[in-house]
Amino acid sequence: KNEMRELRTALLQSAQALGAQLQCLKKAVKFSAWLRSGQRQPYILVADWREVKPCMDALQEESDCNQPRDIVVLAESARVLERAELWAASRPDDDLVLVEESGN
After folding, report:
1. Measured distance CA(75)–CA(50) in Å, rounded
2. At what angle do helices 49-60 and 78-90 cross, to 10 degrees?
3. d(CA 59, CA 15)
4. What tens digit of pLDDT does each residue of 36-82 get?
5. What gap in Å lies between CA 49 and CA 38, rounded to an integer?
6. CB 45 within 8 A of CB 23
7. CB-CB contact of 43 with 69 (8 Å)
8. Secondary structure E strands in 36-75
9. Model-level pTM?
10. With bands split at pLDDT 50, 70 and 90, how would you rate the model's confidence at 7?
């Protein structure tokens, strides 16, 4: 939990530096509800490997104007990092997906 608090603080500081807001939604179901609740400003989706696929499913149901600017997948191990990188490489060119090791 301490590592997640540090990550959340870093994300919040980055968002504030860009004049953006940080919206933390732990599960893809909440992300889907957030998307459906209205038109969104440009945003970046940051998700772990377990949640990114359901989040992508939710995005497929939304209009083009509610799509993220970028997608960042946090991988908690070398094995997950490898799998996530293969998945990201298989995505269409218009999906900008970045995979990062989260250090957990």
Report:
1. 9
2. 20
3. 22
4. 888 888 888 889 999 998 998 898 887 666 788 888 888 888 898 89
5. 26
6. no
7. yes
8. 44-48, 70-75
9. 0.79
10. confident
